[in-house]
Amino acid sequence: MRGARLVQSPQEVDVATTPDDPSQQTGGAFQQADVAGPNTARTVLVTATAALGGFLFGYDTAVINGAVKAVGEQFRASPLVLGFAVAAALIGCAFGAWFAGALADRYGRIRVMILAAIAFAISALGSGFAFSIWDLAFWRIVGGLGVGAASVIAPAYIAEISPAHMRGRLGSLQQLAIVVGIFTSLLVDYALVATSGSASAPLWFGLETWRWMFLSLLVPALVYGVLALTIPESPRYLVANQEHEKAAHVLRRFVGGDVDRKVSEIGRTLVGKSDRGSFANLRGPRFGLLPIVWIGIGLSVFQQFTGINVIFYYSSVLWQAVGFTEQDALLITVITSVTNILTTIIAIALIDRIGRKPLLLIGSIGQFVCLGTLAYLFGTAPVVDGQPTLVGAAGTIALVAANLYVVFFGATWGPVVWVLLGEMFNNRIRAMALSVAAAAQWVANFIISTTFPALASVGLGLAYGIYTFFALLSIFFVARYVQETKGRELEEMV
Could you say which of 48, 93, 307, 364 is the most buried, measured as most Cβ atoms within 10 Å of its Cβ? Predict the structure, then answer.
C-alpha cells in the first residue's frame, strides 16, 4: 500500500471535483457516478454494515453459554481449565483491540473489518472442529482478536462517516448490534438443543450439537466480510492518506455541506501527527498519556466495573436465589437480553436530543440505586445451604432492581460509551486512543468476570456492594471529566 505524506498545512489540501469515472470512486456497491447529496437511508445502510462487527462481537462472546457444559464433559476438563477456555476469548479481545487502531491507521478501516471477519470465520471453524480443550481455547483467542478489532473499528468508522446531527443515533447501532448478537446466539443455541435434545447429542453429519453452535458463527462472519467490501473507506483515513478526491466524494454522499472546506479542516487536524499506527500521538503529561485518553479509559472501565456482565454471565445465581428453577432462570436470562435490546432502542431515540453526558449521569444514578438495593438485600438475606435466600417482598424487590439496573445500563452506559469513544478523540489520535480504551474495557471485563465467583463465595452482598461503589464513583467521574459532544463536528474535538 502506498505510504501517506502527512498534511503539513490546510493550504496544502487541494480538493478536486469528484471524478466522473466510477472506478476512481470509493465504496464498492456504493460506487455511483452521481454526486447526489447525503441520503439518510444510504447512511444508515453503511453504518449498519460497520455495526455488523458489533453483532459478531455479541454473538461470539455469548455463543459459548449453551456449549460450556457439553464442552467440559466432552474433554473431561477441570473447572479451572474450562473456565480458562471460556475466558480465553477475553484475552484475545484485549489484544485485538490494542492492535486494531494501529492497523486501522496504517491500512484503513475497511481492511481491519475484513481481518476481523476472517478471524471470526477461522475461530468458528477451529472451535467447531476442536479436538481438545486447549485447542478450543486457542481458537477462542483467535475469535477474541476479531471481537477486539470490531469493538474498535465499528465506533471509529461510524463516527467518521456520520453527519454530526445523526452521529449519536448511528453510533448507538454498535451497542444495538451487540445486544442483538447476544440474543441471536442464545436463540440459535436454544434451537439447536431443541432439535438434537442436548448440547452433547449428535446433530448433523454426526457432529455434536455444541460444535454446531460454534460453526453457526461462520454465517454472520462471511456476511460481514462480504458487506465490508461494499462500503466506502472513512474520509478521515482517506485525507490522512492524501486521497482527497475520494474523501470529498464520500463526504459529499454521506455528510454534505461545504465538502472542500471539510476536507481542508480534516487536513488541518492532522498537522503534527506522527507516523500512523504510533502510540507516540497519545503521549501526554499525566502518567504518560493525554488527559482525554485517560477519560476514555475511565469510561471503559466504569462501564464494566458496575458489573453488567455479572448480570449476563451469572444471572442464574441471582434468579435461583430468588426461588426460580434452573430452567426458568435461563428463560429469564433470554428475557433480560430482550430488555437490553429495547432499552438500547430508547437510547438511540434520546442520545441526539438529550445528549451524551446527561444520559450517563442518569444511568450512573439509576445503577447506583439499583445495585445498592441488591447489595442490601443480599447482604441481609438469611443463608440457606450456603446461599442467600430472598423470600417474600425481598425477592420481588430484587427482581425489580435487577431488571431496572439492566434498563438503566442499556439506555445509557451501554450505547453512550461506544458513541463517545468513537467521537471524543480528535482525528490525529482517534483510532489509537480507541484501541487503548477498548483494550482497557476488555481487561476490566476479564477482571469482573473472573472475580465474581470468588466474591460471591464470600457473599453476594459484598459483590454487589463493590459494583455499587463504582457506580457512585462514576457519577462524580462523569460530572467532572466528561464533556458533551452532541452536535459537534469531529474536527472540533481537541
Answer: 93
What band does 184 get if pLDDT is binned at 50, 70 and 90?
confident
Query: pLDDT value at position 296?
Result: 93
Q: Are 30 and 151 in contact (CB under 8 A)?
A: no
Q: How large a percentage of the chain has pLDDT more than 90?
A: 20
The superfamily CATH assigns to domain 38-231 is MFS general substrate transporter like domains (1.20.1250.20)
Could you state, in order of their start, the residue ranges of all structural domains in the chain? 38-231, 283-484
**Residues 229, 235, 238, 240, CA torsion sign:** negative
How does pLDDT run across 56-89, given as a tens digit for each residue? Answer: 878 887 777 767 777 777 787 777 777 777 778 8
With a cut of 50, say whether residue 11 has pLDDT above it: no
Residue 447 cell numbers, joined: 477482571
Same topology between domain 38-231 and domain 283-484: yes
The fold for domain 283-484 equals Growth Hormone; Chain: A; (1.20.1250)
Range ranked top by mean pLDDT from 27-36, 335-344, 439-448, 469-478: 469-478
Question: Are the beta carbons of 324 and 332 closer than 8 angstroms?
Answer: yes
- The three grid cell numbers given for residue 376, joined into one nine-digit string: 442490601
